[in-house]
Amino acid sequence: MTHQDLNLADAIQIAMEAEQKAAALYGDAAQKTNNPLGQKLFKRLAEFERHHYEKLLALQESLREQGAFTEYEGEELSLPAPGEVEGIPEPHKMSMMKIVTMAQEVERKAEERYVALAGQTTDPTGQAMFKRLAEEEQAHFRLLRDVYWNLNDHGTWSWSA
């Protein structure tokens, strides 16, 4: 079943469930590393996915009660900037790379889901919300790609801007 086969309410419900699963994945990942930078990254990503869930819940309620989309201004992922922290070695590099790979897939699928929702929504406010959510998920994917390659190449937690 493709996103186009779903009605909007079902697609939003699936997106909400995916955001909860992503938050749980990141919360679990934060527990699996003793590295403070890795913990900070995963905890912040978990918070971000919970934020997405809350915004989708508000959208769901607004659509049900008023038939209207809600505004979404977006949110920036606040992490230490490059140069503020040195790459911190990860003693469990291979297991963390596996987790980061899973996380990249979660973010890629979320981006695809929101792009599809934007495409099936005619309301400009709804389109803007879904496009912004897609952009945020794409930014998370790029961040995780940087983390993966820094773990792979240097065995350290670090990322670029």
Please give a structural write-up:
There is one protein chain. The chain has helices at 8-32, 36-66, 93-120, 124-154, and strands spanning 88-89, 156-157. The chain is mostly helical and 161 residues long. It has a single domain (3-73, 83-157), classed as Ferritin, core subunit, four-helix bundle (Ferritin, Up-down Bundle). A two-stranded antiparallel ribbon has the order 1-2. The protein starts with 7 loop residues before the first helix and ends with a strand.
Ordered list of secondary-structure elements with their pairings:
Elements: H1 8-32, H2 36-66, E1 88-89, H3 93-120, H4 124-154, E2 156-157
Antiparallel strand pairs: 1-2
Helix pairs in contact: 1-2, 1-3, 3-4
Descriptive key words:
161 residues, mainly alpha, Ferritin, 4 helices, 2 strands, disordered N terminus
Summarize the helix and strand pattern as letters. Answer: HHEHHE
Provide the CATH superfamily: Ferritin, core subunit, four-helix bundle
CATH topology: Ferritin
End-to-end Cα distance: 37 Å
